[in-house]
C-alpha cells in the first residue's frame, strides 16, 4: 500500500477551506486504486503548527497513485485551489514489511 501524505498551509483569510475538503473527499469513491482518504484541520503543536490541514490518501500501489497524480481530475483540483495555498509538503511511502 502507498501512503500519499499532504500538509497544507492555507493563506490567511481563505474562506473556501470547507469547499476544498468537500472536493477532495469526492475522490474517495471515484478514483481507481484509492483505498481510503482522510483529511482534517491540524490540532497539533509546533513545529507542524505552520500547516493548517493534513490529507492522507491510501493507494493500492504506486501505479494507482501515479495515475491519480496525472489525471485530469487531479489537475483540475490543483488549478482550482492553487492560489489558496501558502505552503505545502508532500511525502509518499510504501508500507514496510517486517
Keywords for this structure?
alpha+beta; 4 strands; single chain; 98 residues; 3 helices
Fold and architecture overview:
The chain contains three helices and four strands; from the N terminus they run βαββααβ. 7% of the residues are buried. The protein is globular. It is of the alpha+beta class and 98 residues long. 28% of the residues lie in helices and 35% in strands. The protein has a domain at 1-16 and 34-56 and 88-98. A four-stranded antiparallel beta sheet has the order 2-3-1-4. The mean pLDDT is 90. The protein has helices at residues 17-25, 62-69, 72-81; strands at 2-10, 34-41, 53-59, 85-94.
User: What's the SSE pattern?
Assistant: EHEEHHE
**Helical residue percent?**
25-40%
- The class by helix and strand makeup works out as alpha+beta
**Average predicted confidence as pLDDT:** 90
Report the count of strand segments.
Answer: 4
How would a crystallographer describe the biggest sheet?
4 strands, antiparallel
Q: Helix count? A: 3
Oligomer kind? single chain
Strand order of the largest sheet: 2-3-1-4
- Outline the low-pLDDT stretches: none
Distance between the termini: 14 Å
